[in-house]
UniProtKB/TrEMBL annotation:
Pfam annotation, one family: BNR_2
Domain of life: Bacteria
PANTHER family (alphabetical): BNR/ASP-BOX REPEAT FAMILY PROTEIN, BNR_ASP-BOX REPEAT FAMILY PROTEIN
Protein name: Exo-alpha-sialidase
Residue span(s) of domain Sialidase: 47-347
Length: 386
């Protein structure tokens, strides 16, 4: 297919070639909603791509619902989103997409009660729900509770390990004066394809959340996590398919108390998408919200997450640095990173203070700085994509 060259993203879903970055990108149509946040991606067997996110007036309000947009295989434009979840009394957030053994698409998300007087954050009332689609995301079943423990939150999809075990990273929000400071990470584990689950806790993980589970080799897992204290991305290890975990320790990557996305690539490298910023003076045990959610970077590790020598800014935003970041830059946040069947990387994140979702497609070599004329996604002369 032949794409236009980028002059400026428009909210019509059109795919463009960004000559400066060597990427293909689009702003997915936001529909009728005021905000868009926490996108998730899934490539279907027929080559279609789905993107789900939560949309409505404002995060935490009862009119927040899960919506889903489609990029048909071979198309040059994303379609308008459709509304999927419909609870008028709960704020439905943080969707993830997973293809189950029943060949259905599982849409898994959180559902928390609307704000109460005197309480702005109601995440401690959240449960985790699931809706399924058996027709590639055109229609969806009614919502059912997947995990009913109040305070349960999630972000990364269910992961299937080499031994067939399912593992699902969660964290538990509590109603405390310190807000979300004390949230611990827990894992939901199933050895019968989701029929039954057991819960495993990560030791001393309070404030380390949004666990992204990566299987380095058979049974050897790492979990990369967001830090409520806005200091670093943290890492924990398991050597028994997730039955036990080490106490999390900081990596060299900064974290700004915002979501991350990590996975193992076909090359064997670990990739992570994140905001490469942190609070200037983090305090352990105290949640910080520095608001520094620009730029968006993708980093690569060749040693299981110990070091990250290859880092590229995929979204540079307005380009300001330093103390004026929060006023001069907009927010580009909650990235979701996945690898397609053809090896391309696909990235989605909340765009320009949540006015929509930006989608990008590029290669692992693009992150490493290889010449796009030989390894990129398109021919810069003809404009043809591969």
């Amino acid at each position: 297919m032949k794409l236009k060259h980028l002059q400026g993203l428009t909210p019509d879903g059109e795919l463009y070639i960004n000559d400066d970055m060597g990427t293909v990108e689009a702003m997915i149509p936001p529909g009728v909603y005021n905000t868009a946040h926490a996108p998730a991606l899934l490539e279907l067997e027929n080559g279609d791509m789905l993107c789900a996110w939560f949309a409505g007036s404002f995060e935490g309000s009862k009119d927040i619902s899960i919506v889903c947009a489609r990029l048909n295989s071979g198309s040059t434009s994303w379609e308008e989103p459709i509304k999927v979840s419909n609870d008028s009394e709960r704020s439905e957030q943080n969707p993830s997409l997973f293809i189950g053994p029943d060949k259905a698409i599982w849409l898994v998300y959180t559902a928390q009660m609307d704000r109460m007087e005197g309480k702005d954050n109601m995440q401690f009332t959240s449960i985790i729900r699931c809706q399924k689609s058996f027709d590639n995301g055109y229609t969806w079943s009614k919502a059912e509770a997947l995990f009913s423990r109040e305070g349960s939150f999630c972000r990364q999809p269910i992961q299937v390990l080499e031994n067939g075990r399912w593992i699902f990273g969660n964290w538990v929000c509590t109603d405390s004066k310190l807000g979300l400071t004390g949230d611990p990470t827990v894992f939901q584990i199933s050895d019968d394809e989701g029929k039954t689950w057991k819960t495993v806790e990560m030791p001393n993980s309070n404030g380390r959340v949004h666990a992204n589970i990566v299987e380095l080799e058979n049974g050897h897992l790492i979990a990369l996590m967001r830090s409520r204290f806005a200091d670093n991305v943290y890492i924990s290890e398991s050597f028994d398919f997730g039955d036990t975990w080490s106490e999390p320790v900081p990596t060299v990557l900064p974290n700004n108390n915002s979501s991350i996305s990590a996975l193992k690539l076909e090359s064997g490298r670990i990739a992570i998408a994140y905001n490469p910023t942190c609070t200037p003076v983090p305090t352990q045990g105290i949640a910080a919200w520095p608001g520094l959610r620009c730029p968006v970077a993708v980093a690569l590790s060749e040693d299981g997450g110990k070091t990250w020598p290859m880092i590229r800014l995929m979204e540079r935003g307005e380009g300001f640095i330093g103390d004026e970041n929060t006023t001069n830059n907009k927010q580009y946040e909650y990235p979701y990173l996945m690898q397609g069947k053809d090896g391309d990387l696909h990235l989605a994140f909340a765009y320009k203070n949540r006015i929509g979702v930006k989608y990008m497609r590029f290669s692992e070599a693009d992150v490493m700085g290889a010449k796009r004329e030989t390894v990129g996604l398109y021919n810069p002369t003809s404009g043809e994509t591969k």
